[in-house]
Here is the input.
Amino acid sequence: MTGTADVHAHALVLAMDYRVPDPGKVWPLLQKRKDALARLGAHHVLVYTSTEDHGRVMVTMALRSREPILEVLRSRVFLDWFDAVGLEDIPAIFAGETVDKIVIPEAAGTEPPGVIVAAIAAVEDVPSLIAGVHSALDRFAAAGIRAIRVFGAFDDEHEVFILQEIDNEADATHWVNDPDSAAEWMTGTGIGAYPPVFVGRLQHMMRIDEND
Here is the structure.
């Protein structure tokens, strides 16, 4: 697995978290819609599958421009895709942009990080959350976390999508069950419209050129 930090550098991101009967159908359907995704402004598409919850998938898309976000969300491409993979409920969808990228050199190893821990959540104050993370980087490193990417939602100043790269599943499970107090967003997941924390592995990555 290559780190996701470079892919999402200064990115506009659309993230979708959902369950499907057969996760294996997701990637082929995305490949078939590559031209349509290019027209909507996507330049990278990443597909993660949960290591803890069979059938749960997270798809993140890095977009070239903020302008067509509503068009992307309303696009027939996604509605057809959701139908094709067998979704019965509307997925949790986050649209936003990078507000901070933290790479933790002390946690760097010789192998790429194996797992992501991702969350869409509501927090009281995003700048305070980021300051708290920076003040506790030694504890994040001790937990095996290599990088943290914080995205702020376009339409809600309290909503964030946070993507953490972590060494392995054991570290991820421990972190989810007993997070540091600086990771306050972890306690805001699984409530209302917000799905539980997602723990998974990168399965596929697609790069889309503008001329595709």
In short: The chain has a mean pLDDT of 86. The first strand starts at residue 12 and ends at 19. The chain has seven helices and eight strands.
